[in-house]
Specification:
The chain contains 7 helices and 20 strands. By secondary structure, it is α+β, with helices and mostly antiparallel strands. Helices cover 18% and strands 29% of the residues. The chain has helices at residues 6-9, 68-93, 123-130, 149-155, 176-184, 259-262, 346-352, and strands at residues 15-22, 25-32, 99-101, 116-121, 139-143, 171-172, 191-193, 197-200, 203-204, 212-216, 224-232, 241-245, 247-251, 275-280, 294-297, 301-307, 311-316, 321-326, 330-334, 340-343. Residues 1-51 have low confidence and may be disordered. The chain is globular, with a radius of gyration of 21 Å. Strands 1, 2, 3, 4, 5, 6, 7 and 20 form an 8-stranded mixed beta sheet that branches. A 6-stranded antiparallel beta sheet has the order 9-8-19-16-11-12, with no helix packed on it. Strands 15-14-13-10-17-18 form a 6-stranded antiparallel beta sheet, with no helix packed on it. The protein has 2 domains: 6-34 and 62-193, Rossmann fold (3-Layer(aba) Sandwich), CATH 3.40.50; 197-337, Tumour Suppressor Smad4. The two termini are 40 Å apart.
Length: 353
């Protein structure tokens, strides 16, 4: 267990989540502050040309928030997260389950020898845990602080009151014990979700994406230059497309409701084993290329990418996992990856049936 208590480790702002494994497993929790250059509401901070970059390990600067209602709101969010953490711990302590705790940022090795991973937080916590799981260990997501639509509407003119999405989370604090019992006794079975495999110059990258990957220049204002084609395992391929764009996004069915949908993609059945890809903001594409800028990668197919910028990056499930690429590198992107077993919420189970 961590040497400090939850009360000491979690300040009264930000977002916390944790992960429980059972038996012989671990609990992980995480705190995330606002991104650099933003205040607690997500608004951009004034530019200060004399400001210096904080030293690594230096304490963070104090928050600058003009609206005290924002701080009160964040304090409430932290309180709800901690209450959910304590509730989950209490439930586990009442059952014949062995578990230990591990901080999320300390996770660096694959998880083995556990029967179940329980992620408590939101989809981001579940995605992070998935990067350390093979196809044999199921994960149950608990949304620790679901968004309240009425509150979002009430506060929309003041700040963004949306909380955790929890699209893949089957449980909340209200039904955690019920879902856990159903999982442990076998009446609630995990679903098998596709993940994305990426080979760099023929070598398998160690991370498999549960939501999506983005191949792009590391600077969002720069043009991404690459070529790509779809190719089947039998050798058949589409014609080569040379792209200047904002990058290439590839999503799983689970990730098709996220950035892919926001960019104009479509929702895929959660049980599908195909991938959806889209060229982001293509610059002056040829008419012959347009039908191939957005489509599906079926089982037995992959996308072959050749990168032409001096630098580039492959982002897995957001910005937390990134692999650098350079001019001339090739990427092979497919669904030829270990599945992930996830206890899904009822609405997704109905969608997949």
């Amino acid at each position: 267990m961590p040497t400090k208590t939850d009360e000491e480790r979690v300040p009264n702002f930000g977002y916390a989540g944790f992960r429980l494994d059972a038996p012989d497993a671990s609990v992980a929790w995480n705190l995330q502050r606002g991104r650099s250059g933003q205040n607690a509401t997500g608004d951009a901070l004034p530019h200060n040309p004399t400001a210096q970059t904080p030293r690594r390990g230096a304490p963070p600067p104090p928050l600058r928030v003009s609206n005290p209602k924002v701080l009160n709101y964040l304090d409430d969010r932290c309180r709800v997260h901690k209450e959910t953490i304590n509730l989950c711990k209490s439930v586990l302590q009442r059952k014949s389950i062995d578990w230990i705790s591990v901080q999320r940022n300390d996770m660096s090795n694959p998880i083995h020898d556990v029967d179940l991973v329980i992620s408590v937080g939101g989809d981001g916590t579940l995605l992070r845990a998935s990067h350390f799981l093979n196809s044999s260990i199921p994960v149950l997501g608990v949304n620790s602080d679901p968004t309240c639509p009425d509150e979002v509407d009430e506060l929309t003119d003041e700040f963004d009151a949306r909380r955790s999405t929890g699209h893949l989370c089957a449980a909340t604090a209200a039904n955690f014990e019920q879902i856990l019992d159903a999982t442990l006794d076998g009446s609630r079975q995990p679903s098998e979700l596709s993940r994305i495999s990426v080979k760099l110059n023929g070598l398998q990258l160690p991370t498999y994406a549960l939501n999506d990957i983005l191949v792009s220049h590391p600077c969002p204002a720069s043009v991404s230059r690459f070529s790509f084609r779809k190719r089947s395992n039998t050798g058949e391929s589409s014609h080569l497309i040379n792209c200047r764009s904002s990058g290439l996004r590839v999503a799983t069915p689970a990730g098709s409701t996220a950035a892919m949908l926001s960019a104009g993609g479509f929702v895929m059945p959660i049980s599908s084993h195909e991938l959806q890809y889209m060229i982001r903001e293509p610059i002056s594409p040829r008419d012959a290329d347009k039908p191939l800028l957005h489509g599906l990668v079926k089982q037995g197919q992959h996308i072959l990418v050749v990168w032409y910028n001096e630098e580039g990056a492959v982002y897995f499930d957001g910005s937390h996992v990134m692999h650098s690429i350079q001019h001339g590198d090739t990427l092979e992107i497919s669904s030829d990856a270990p599945i992930l077993k996830v206890i899904l919420p009822e609405n997704l189970l109905k969608q997949g049936s």
